[in-house]
Design brief:
Oligomer: single chain
CATH topology: Pnp Oxidase, Chain A
Largest sheet: 7 strands, antiparallel
Keywords: Signal
CATH superfamily: Electron Transport, Fmn-binding Protein, Chain A
Strand content: 25-35%
Mean pLDDT: 77
GO cellular component, one term: cytoplasm
Low-confidence stretches: 1-41
Radius of gyration: 16 Å
Number of domains: 1
Protein name: CREG-like beta-barrel domain-containing protein
Order of helices and strands: EHHEEEEHEEH
Organism: Apostasia shenzhenica
Strand order of the largest sheet: 3-2-6-7-1-5-4
């Protein structure tokens, strides 16, 4: 976790990045020969399910919420999950790194201060592109494992995270 000169307790909202252990999601889309030929407002087509990396990037880019799970401090090391909004970049220009705003009142923040390991689980079901049962084998789903990282107010990445979040979740802008 990065720290700044101001105390984390004084900050009302925390931004975290989930770094993926899945190396394909960390790579730039350009590394896979993907060019941004589509305008930002356009929606990329659903990839062929046999292309796991493209399907994973598509699922992360298209979704706007998921379940983040941490090792709970209050539950003495038991797993704990909560629904969170996130964004991995502006529409059509995702980075594969989800950004979150987390309040100090949320258990995830407390958990991450003790153990920064986390998992983000996403399903295709909220997108309306598959059947309504998330366990249907034709619905894409993914769990990304990594570590939560604090972005301080001084970090230049903060602006990128804010643009990503506020573009996908404009209601957040006035609340954080």
């Amino acid at each position: 976790m990065r720290t700044s000169s101001s105390s984390p307790m004084a900050v009302q909202a925390a931004i975290f990045i989930l770094f993926f252990l899945i190396s394909l999601l960390l790579q730039s889309p350009a590394a896979f020969g993907i060019r941004y030929a589509i305008p930002p407002a356009a929606s990329p087509p659903i990839p062929n399910p046999s292309d796991a990396a493209a399907t994973a990037r598509w699922l992360v880019a298209k979704n706007s919420w998921g379940v983040i799970s941490t090792i709970s401090v209050d539950l003495k090391g038991a797993p704990f999950g909560e629904v969170v909004s996130y964004s991995d970049g502006e529409p059509g220009h995702g980075f594969g790194i989800p950004y979150f705003y987390l309040s100090q009142l949320e258990p995830t923040l407390k958990d991450a201060s003790t153990d920064d390991r986390a998992a983000l689980t996403l399903s295709e079901v909220p997108l309306g592109t598959c059947r309504k049962d998330p366990q249907d084998p034709t619905c894409a789903k993914i769990t990304l494992n990594g570590k939560l990282k604090w972005i301080s107010r001084e970090d230049p990445e903060l602006k990128l995270a804010q643009v990503a979040l506020f573009t996908k979740h404009p209601e957040m802008q006035g609340n954080y």
